[in-house]
């Protein structure tokens, strides 16, 4: 074995190579062809995701447009959402979604961010390493399970006993269920953001004799504010799109009159879609009720897309900073 | 004069006395964490109490019986089989496609506008509500491709779930690939390997534990999904599965564990509430097994560079 002397100067390829050697360096043409084929296959796999996005928009738009063409437009603004009777009141389901998501965020925002501040700023690293995976596992609880829990426990034990509601099905119970479901998600993203704040900022704050609470509230939280806002928006987006909790616990499977009473049954956009797709009177074919599914789906898709784009922007701002 | 200014300053500097505000703040934070965990502990507890009682009473007959409108005879066998068949489709389609897309984005793609658009697109697809994927499946698989899928069938359901988890697979696999140090690639190129050879024999093996963990977790996500399956026609009522060829089974009626949970939770009889809890116990046990496997895999094979 000869040792390559260190510091050997290597000629630039092509500069002083014998003719024909560059062809040798390019390698076996079969090998190059295989290389190109494989690269193309990977590229196609990645481009498939664009196809999915396009298909979503096209299939939703197509049916939604033919839905809007087939119904009298004033049926979009009536007294309630009863698709099988040709009443497609959009404000009923929009307000339903709004009420449920607001209740969910009233629960998820303080609990999630509070838990995140505790885990990031107060807990010992051992405690954090144990509790955070538990929290993330709990975030993976299927939403049907939460729906069942909202109907059988939250509704009788919290909504009826503590809040004086008197309906088994209520938007309040569904909203609380969605809130509990979203809390671990908010906590996890917000904690990541605060954990990413450089230690030197905390040390500078302690160096000025600030207390831990002052450091948390005045230094770490403002530094991580983009990430915290992103966690709330992602949580809101999840809450808006959450289906099963609402379908099980909010009631009003057939339809709903316009209502803003959170203690009564109500219909959200997602709940309305699930109701249309289930039951003995499941709608099929090209009826207006069937097509209304896609119209509502398009509204929902648009809302969550806007929320996700906003949160993406906040996340990027956070990343750019540290 | 009891307290002079100097005393106050000294006391403040030395922080004597208790910082009640700070304690209160810390208490409130801990309370938030405990409440979030507490709700979920109550949830699991409630379901275990109801579900285990019924499982003890019914024994394995609960796992082997078909669906029925009689609570005493209803079981989850079709749902278990249905869920497993659905997962088969997810594993067979979403995993290879998602990992291939991640390899392209991390190893091949130059920083062009098109490739950046793919990344943004994948991130946004991950945030689309699951029920919208149900609509996509309904329009594409159930309606447009009914000749191949047989309409509302296992194929339609499985492919819908596959598209649903595809962005998650791409994102987690990308993260795993990104964690592979550049030096490993350079070593491969240094001995004259081509890009694919480097990816196949160096990058993918090094990223395998991370990719595996991510894909297994996305499988768990698909396992618990209900909303899209309702739209693409998982049966929410009673039906019977006979014997038939595999193709007939894949094109036939099906249901899944979460769908059964949804159906039963809407039935008014008290017995069905217990059945629902028991079905949830089965569902959670399967999910925990999958999640546990992912964590075990990560701990077993994870490498720190």
Please describe the structure with a list of short key phrases separated by commas or semicolons.
heterodimer, A: 322 residues, mainly alpha, MetI-like fold, 2 domains, 3-stranded antiparallel sheet, 12 helices, 3 strands, 2% strand, B: 305 residues, 14 helices, 77% helix
- Topology as H/E string of chain B? HHHHHHHHHHHHHH
Q: Write down the Rg of chain B.
A: 26 Å
Low-confidence stretches of chain A: 1-15
Oligomer: heterodimer
How many helices of chain A? The count is 12
Architecture overview:
The complex is a heterodimer of chains A (322) and B (305). By secondary structure, chain A is mostly helical. Chain A is 70% helix and 2% strand. Chain A has a three-stranded antiparallel beta sheet. In chain A, α3 (90-122) packs antiparallel against α9, α4 (125-138) runs antiparallel to α6 (171-195) and α7 packs antiparallel against α8 (212-223). With 305 residues, chain B is mainly alpha-helical. Chain B has one domain: MetI-like fold (Orthogonal Bundle), CATH 1.10.3720.10. Chain B is 77% helix and 0% strand. In chain B, α9 runs antiparallel to α10. The termini of chain B are far apart. The model of chain B has no long low-confidence stretch (mean pLDDT 87). Chains A and B meet through α2, α3, α4, α5 and α6 of A and α2, α4, α5, α6 and α8 of B.
Can you describe this structure in just a few lines?
Chain A is mainly α and 322 residues long. Helices cover 70% and strands 2% of the residues of chain A.
Write the layout of secondary structure elements.
The complex is a heterodimer of chains A (322) and B (305).
Chain A: H1 21-26, H2 29-70, E1 80-82, E2 87-88, H3 90-122, H4 125-138, H5 143-160, H6 171-195, H7 199-207, H8 212-223, H9 225-241, H10 244-249, E3 256-257, H11 269-277, H12 288-321
Antiparallel strand pairs in A: 1-2, 1-3
Helix pairs in contact in A: 2-12, 3-6, 3-9, 4-6, 5-6, 6-9, 7-8, 9-12, 11-12
Chain B: H1 5-14, H2 20-58, H3 61-64, H4 77-108, H5 113-126, H6 130-144, H7 146-149, H8 154-178, H9 182-190, H10 195-224, H11 227-231, H12 246-251, H13 257-265, H14 270-301
